[in-house]
Amino acid sequence: MKTTKVRFTVAYDGTGYCGWQKQKQEGQISVASLIEKALERVFNEKITLFASGRTDAGVHAFNQVCHFSTHRKLDPAKKWDICWALNSHLPSSIVVKKAWIAPEEFHATISATHKTYRYFILNRPRPSAHLARHMDWVRKPLDIDILQVSTQYLVGNYDFKSFQSVGTPITDTVREVFQADWKWRKPDVLQFTITGDGFLKQMVRNIVGTALMIERRQENPVRMKEILDSMDRRQAGPPAPAAGLYLLRVYYPQDLDKQCIEL
Amino acid sequence: MKTTKVRFTVAYDGTGYCGWQKQKQEGQISVASLIEKALERVFNEKITLFASGRTDAGVHAFNQVCHFSTHRKLDPAKKWDICWALNSHLPSSIVVKKAWIAPEEFHATISATHKTYRYFILNRPRPSAHLARHMDWVRKPLDIDILQVSTQYLVGNYDFKSFQSVGTPITDTVREVFQADWKWRKPDVLQFTITGDGFLKQMVRNIVGTALMIERRQENPVRMKEILDSMDRRQAGPPAPAAGLYLLRVYYPQDLDKQCIEL
After folding, report:
1. Among residues B72, B90, B111, which one ends one of the domains?
2. DSSP B235
3. How far is it, in rounded angstroms, from Cα A165 to Cα A205?
4. Does A234 share its domain with A132?
5. Do B130 and A94 touch (CB under 8 A)?
6. Which of A106, A185, B201, B226 has the most CB atoms lying inside 10 A of its own CB?
């Protein structure tokens, strides 16, 4: 029986979830399990959900990309608001934003060419009660120049072993980082944006944590390059808190994007 | 034994709390009980906490004002960061922002002359996973003119009985509203700011809910005046959700403010 492939983007507030994927421990709720459940209720069939990749416990997404296959016939002309239907079965912390009929070759995980993550830091003397779930907080004024120069050493094709947390079977730790920039988003909010062809376990949080460590110790930013070259996780700083991290965007080949038909 | 009066401002994300004050039901946590506990740990004595007023379950505050008395001697010159000490005993959803030694006549509840509340509405086709705890959400484009004209009928000294929710012993329902304005804060975020000498139970949420009802039904904004004059709660709309409401500022007589010494 012929199936239709559906691609969709979803935003979520990762606070309180065990991450995108189910964990071995019981009693923890994953974002993926709730979306899968919503899909099965709306489509009334067993659904297998695929995403661009996992996010850790407490990490957020503005635009996670997923796909699944359904036996149901979908007609874009009928203007059935599949996002609305899914959102009515999801908690307010998970929002399906847009959906498309995707070509058969599209695969949310395998087709992804690169990803952009963003990290937010509230930088002021007092923390914020309202932003505690959404940003990291650093009390002392940050020197953006040290941060910016340090992460420039990571742009390129390198072995990022120093920035991979333990507990993963992955052995090929070479990745390409295309861009890694710091910017004041507001006078007291700093944002770090990084784009790469793939990221190791906690790689972004380890990079942010290391940049903050170098800044705090007022070290020469070239320390980042020494840590990268050492290929030794113990040289790098501790991971920055999950609350500040967002999966911002996932990129796919243009020809696949063009074949997607919005629902 | 002589005591010192301490005034402080506190911000909180009200989500998940039963409100400012303890409720009769067990198993619910109030914001005030956590602050009182933190004060008792930091000051190592029994503390009674007073605030400008209560906020309902789920309602937030940018600047709630409180006071308490302590037997401890406080010396502003010593630069002891009392806010930092308190925050280290509080969850990240409650942040003490500033503290002062207050004159003996200061009372957070009794001295308050007026208060400003603010209400946020996200107005766009899709909800936000990240703002769900912080704003109400309205799908259809809102007509700010209807909202603005309707709430202008509430500026003045009136009996606001129509906008008082049940379950309060208060019988004097006359209050003065000084200002009540709607404004686009961002292209898709509407904010309502209201200042008055006091507010009845759920009065702000009932006013917002009624304005939204008039807008949705495309009624003449003068309907707000008819509802006010009716002194009948059933004429007004349902209360807007607590998640959108923030206690923004509490005002005290200038001579009391001037006598406060920052800690």
Report:
1. B111
2. G
3. 10
4. yes
5. no
6. A106
Boundary (domain end) residue, out of A76, A111, A146:
A111
A237-253 per-position pLDDT tens digit: 999 999 999 999 999 99
- How many domains does chain A fold into? 2
Pairing of strands A114-123, A189-196: antiparallel
Question: How many whole angstroms separate alpha carbon A14 and alpha carbon A8?
Answer: 18
ipTM of the complex in this document: 0.89
User: Same domain for A237 and A159?
Assistant: yes
Residues B183 and B124 in one domain: yes
Residues B21-77: pLDDT tens digits? 977 666 789 999 999 999 999 999 999 999 999 999 999 999 999 999 999 988 888
> B36 to chain A nearest CA, in Å?
17
Cβ(A209)–Cβ(A180) under 8 Å? no
> Any known ligand binding at A117?
yes
Render pLDDT for A63-77 as a digit per residue (tens, 0 to 9): 999 999 999 988 888
Residues A124, A85: one domain? no
Contacts of B134 in chain A (CB under 8 A): 130
- φ, ψ (nearest 5 deg) of residue B247: -75, 110
Distance CA B60, CA B55 (A): 8
pLDDT of residue A22: 78
Range of the domain at B94: 4-111
